[in-house]
Each structure stands twice: as C-alpha cells, then as structure tokens.
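Hi V.,

You were right to ask for the full record rather than a summary. Here it is.
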Amino acid sequence: YTPTIGRSHGIHAEPVTFGLKMAEAYAEFARCRKRLIAAREEVATCAISGAVGTFANVDPAVEQYVADKMGLEVEPVSTQVIPRDRHAMFFAVLGVIASSIERLAIEVRHLQRTEVLEAEEYFSPGQKGSSAMPHKRNPVLTENLTG
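Predicted structure:
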C-alpha cells in the first residue's frame, strides 16, 4: 500500500505501489524456482552402461541400483557420458536466475540513488558506507548481488 512512482524506460509513468514492484519480483522468482526444480530433475541422471552404452560388461540392474541409491533417474540412452544438453540446460537456467537477481538488484540500487531515494538497504549501527566518505550509504548488498 506504499505509493511510489511507476516508471517505464526509467522515466516517470503512472503511480504504482512498492508492493507491486515486490510482487513482480516475487512472481519472477517463483518462475525461477520452478525452472530450477525442472532443470535439477532433468540433469539428475545416472549412466553406467559401459563405454558405448551397450551394457557389455555391466548388468543394467547395477545401473538401476546405483541410480536408486543416489536418487537419480537412469539415462534412457547413453554412451560413456550423460548427454551434455542436460548440463547445458541446467546452467542456462542458472543464467536466467542470475539475470533475475541482477534485475532486482539494479532496481533496488536505482531506488537508492540520492536523487531518487525511494528505498535504502539496511545500514547497521557503525557501518561505514565508504572508506573515503564514511557518511555515504552505498548500496553494498545489491552491488554484491550484481557482481
């Protein structure tokens, strides 16, 4: 219920609430969580089918036993390696999540600018904002997230 300035392209637009801005981030991170769960399920596979995937020297029951013990699924068609597209998708999802974190961090950093000052990070008692200018309140947390 806290009114604030809505922006598009960084320019004042229509009034919104701070809660709406946080709801947008919440919805985005909910989507990220679903993506991460799906990516984790997709990458959590096991392959012990031999050098070319024929089970020439390992019984398929061994593969299933190991997969069950490790909480993995058996790779349905494999060679000596798990197909790399599984790992690529997992890391792609991590990249999407990182971009969501950065988007929110940049928004919060913008809201802390001196000329905007619609939000501020918590500053603990005695915390210094800058070694050269200790009176400043630099956005340390959001800068770390962006980094």
